[in-house]
Amino acid sequence: MAKGLRFPIVLDLGTHNLRLIQVKSADPGNIVLQKFVSNDAPRELVVSTFIENPIMDATPVENALKSLVKTAKLGYENVLVLIPDHGSLINCLVAPPRYSRKEQEEAIREDIAPVMPLPIENWTIVHETVGRWEEDEITIALATIKSNLLEIGGLVQRCGLNPQAVDINFFNVSNLIEHYLTDSANKDKSIALVHLGNETTTMGVFKNGAIRTVLNRPIGAYDFTKQISKHFHVPETEAEQFKRNEVFFLPESSPEQEGLYNFTVVKSVFSALAREIFTGMESYLTKFREFTVQEVILSGGGGNFQNIQVLLAANLNCVVRPVGELFQVTTDNGPLDLAERNALAPACGALFRE
Question: From residue 352, how far is each of 33, 118, 124, 238 by CA, in Å?
Fold first, then answer.
């Protein structure tokens, strides 16, 4: 097992796929996995910030996890558990420094309470000050429903693993590409990270490796699948295959894109996604008095929609590149391809947690 890593085993509970990895070695930009297994996530695995105990039926989820652990041939090992970004409320507070921890906690609770769908005492809130901007501090807070943490922890334990912590995807992807965000070639650049998950999209902007803003929006890769399924009157499993095999986005920016029939089917979803990303970027530019975002890094399984980055680049007027270009992953079966790296980015990033 790799030495010096806080969490050498990571379980990623996605609403589309379940993934379990064990690392052999991890250096910035280059990861070697001892084990990597995955399977489809049961439809009963629901993660939500609006519902207490959201898993509709634990039995299929438990069986899928037990199969994953059995395939990986793991004993009762310590593990970091990742849940989708919409499993927690994310709050970015830019405010003058507080003089005590109590004052800081009160300011965070006051800022996040208005968007909580349940009473604040039902939540576990963790926070960290991640940098400064002018005279203000930038603090990131995550709020997760307590009963959901207990439910997930108990489920993982029953499947033969020992959960040590639960976290969301976005910030672990940022761990993964820290070497790139802090590279001297990117000094003074504003770089956005967009994690396109199955159900939601999280985007944040970094400058000199420090996060400035982050937000989560209720649109993801599954919205494309639902739209295709509805339009062609096919099951969602067929719609997923259609997404993989058919052309929706051209490989180069062209006026012909608008006339592509498949694109007209998903145009409304794509437009909503691009608008949400652009709104987040525009909010950052206004708040921090910046002029432009130079680059967008696209991560998550949703980023594997073939050539979607080409049209996003045209709409956002900046470079858009997949996160898988920034790191390599090798297993006993050889290197993982770009699509696998894009989807595995959060789990790989969790290996670099301190």
Answer: 13, 33, 24, 37
In terms of domains, do 151 and 261 share one?
no
Strand order in the sheet with 190-196: 210-217, 201-207, 190-196, 295-299, 319-322
Q: Please give the chain's pLDDT, 354 residues, in tens.
A: 455 578 899 999 998 899 999 999 999 999 999 999 999 988 877 777 676 666 667 888 899 999 999 999 998 999 999 999 999 999 999 999 887 888 989 999 999 999 888 899 999 999 999 988 989 999 999 999 998 899 899 999 999 999 999 999 999 999 999 999 999 999 999 999 999 999 999 999 999 999 999 999 999 999 999 999 999 999 999 999 999 999 999 999 999 999 999 999 999 999 999 999 999 999 999 999 999 999 999 999 999 999 999 999 999 999 999 999 999 999 999 999 999 999 999 999 999 987
353: domain CATH number? 3.30.420.40
What length does the chain have?
354
Domain co-membership, 321 together with 336: no
Distance CA 60, CA 162 (A): 20
One domain for residues 199 and 321: yes
Do 209 and 317 fall into the same domain?
Answer: yes
User: Which amino acid does the sequence have at 242?
Assistant: F
- CA separation for the pair 299, 322 (Å, rounded): 6
| 58 Cβ neighbours under 8 A, 6+ residues apart | 44, 151, 155
| Residue 312 and residue 219 share a domain | yes
Tell me whether strands 295-299 and 190-196 are parallel, antiparallel or unpaired. Answer: parallel
Domain span holding position 68: 1-87+146-177+327-354
Same domain as 215, residue 101: no
Kindly state whether residues 321 and 335 are assigned to the same domain. Answer: no
Those residues whose C-beta lies under 8 Å from the C-beta of residue 47, and which sit 6 or more positions away, are 13, 15, 54, 83, 84, 86, 87, 148
Three-state DSSP at 296 gives strand
Torsion of CA 95, 101, 107, 108, to 10 degrees: 90
Same domain? 201 vs 304: yes
> Are 61 and 53 a contacting pair, CB within 8 Å?
no
Tokens in use for 301?
A: 């399984």
